[in-house]
Write a structure and sequence with these properties.
Strand order of the largest sheet: 9-8-7-10-11-12
CATH class of one domain: Alpha Beta
CATH superfamily of one domain: von Willebrand factor, type A domain
CATH topology of one domain: Rossmann fold
Shape: flat
Radius of gyration: 39 Å
Structural class: alpha/beta
Number of helices: 11
Length: 422
């Protein structure tokens, strides 16, 4: 077997290229491992890196080996032990463990699975690669930006058209004062001494000539100081700033009523953390509004939304009404792409579900790009689910999904925000 050895010295960062090649080559297996791992994470570590386990058979590499050449005569013995249909006994193997999971191997020796550590950025990139906000193409994409030029001070380099005359003359004056002030002071002193000698009839001619030579030398040096130099030139500096061509806002509505037990709240939090990471990582010009509700709804910050322990009864319409009020005050529909995601266990006052349907039908769905509702429960669906399903028949910008346990979080999330094909 021929072995090829690369003896070149490893340059700094060479392993990064090899890492990217490995991820690209085994992307399918790594993405499957990432999607499986996200459902096993807690709220606190959902955005950290991950150890990915890939079966050894999936990362086998092609090898070079010597082929059998020439003319070879070979005798194959006949089969004198088995007939068609015979059952072959399993060969007796060793006691080694296989598959890397601590389970006994039924075939003797085996190899551990390959464990590969991916970083936080790599994990999130693989997690959200095929996802996007639906219907965003109806307006200009919020990832596209225009650039506006604005004055940003002064610079020493530039084109003649951008010369700032006042700043350049000010710099020239400062330089000339710094270079000639001492010489002018000396010249003034020597001139006074010369005037005194010229007024004195008994003054020595040599002294007068020496002073005149010194004065002429100083005047020559002063004359050599340029009025303006390249160091004095100042140019107007212009920079560009991004002006978003469109904007998007995501309203996150979460039920924190007493019917939402701790496990259900944990699933809802994990779904919203996943959504928050997706939005903030993928879309630059996007705002997120967090609304928690029980019998009353209120706008909260990120920390309180995910970790507050407040609870109470259930009136879903309070959250929908607050969302509509905030949207009307701060996010006009002609300037913003409006999105909403709601998580609940389905419990609601029976009299309130028709009110929720009315709010969505008249005030919210006509304005939003996409409204997603997830119901987290193992029980039969109730009136809220039925009301939202009837809205699906009238509007194509609402999606209703069901989560039973933590394993459904990522598949449901992916189904809600799957990138649309043209």
């Amino acid at each position: 077997m021929a072995n090829f050895i690369d003896r070149r010295l490893n340059a700094k960062g060479k392993s990064t290229v090899n890492r990217q090649r490995f991820i690209a080559r085994h992307k399918k297996q790594i993405k499957k491992a990432v999607s499986d791992a996200v459902t096993q994470r807690s709220v606190t570590d959902i955005d950290t890196g991950e150890k990915i386990t890939i079966p050894t058979r999936d990362i086998s590499e092609p090898t070079f080996h010597q082929g059998k050449g020439g003319i070879r005569d070979q005798v194959h013995p006949g089969n004198d032990q088995f007939n068609r249909g015979d059952k072959i006994e399993r060969p007796k193997g060793g006691n080694g463990n296989g598959s890397g999971q601590g389970e006994a191997s039924d075939s003797g020796e085996s190899e551990d699975d390959f464990v590969f550590q991916i970083s936080n950025d790599e994990y999130l990139e693989l997690l959200f690669e095929d996802l996007a906000l639906p219907n965003l193409q109806k307006t200009q994409l919020n990832k596209l930006v225009e650039y506006q030029t604005y004055r940003a001070g002064y610079t020493n380099d530039g084109v003649p058209a951008n010369i700032n005359i006042v700043r350049s003359l000010r710099s020239s004056l400062g330089r000339r004062i710094a270079m000639s002030a001492k010489k002018k002071k000396q010249l003034k002193i020597l001139q006074l001494q010369l005037d005194a000698l010229l007024k004195n009839p008994g003054a020595s001619t040599d002294e007068i000539q020496t002073l005149q030579e010194q004065i002429n030398a100083l005047r020559t040096k002063l004359a050599k100081v340029p009025f303006i130099d390249t160091f004095d030139l100042r140019f107007n500096n212009y920079a560009r700033k991004e002006i978003p061509t469109s904007q998007a806002v995501m309203f996150c509505l979460m039920d924190v009523s007493g019917s939402m037990d701790q496990a259900t709240k944990e699933i809802a939090k994990r779904f919203y953390i996943l959504l928050y990471l997706f939005l903030t990582r993928t879309y630059k010009n996007l705002e997120v509004v967090f609304i928690r509700h029980h019998t009353q709804a209120k706008e909260v910050d990120e920390q309180e939304f995910f970790y507050s322990q407040e609870t109470g009864g259930t009136i879903v319409s309070s959250a929908l009404k607050l969302m509509h009020d905030i949207q009307q005050q701060r996010y006009p529909e002609n300037q913003w792409n409006i999105y909403a995601a709601q998580a609940s266990d389905g419990d609601n006052w029976s009299d309130d579900s028709p009110h929720c349907k009315e709010l969505l039908n008249k005030h919210i769905l006509p304005l939003v790009r996409y409204y997603s509702y997830i119901e987290i429960t193992k029980r039969p669906h109730q009136t809220l689910w039925a009301a939202y399903q009837t809205l699906q028949e009238e509007f194509d910008n609402i999606a209703v999904q069901h989560i039973r346990d933590a394993d459904d979080i990522y598949p449901v999330f992916k189904a809600l925000f799957q990138k649309q094909t043209a």
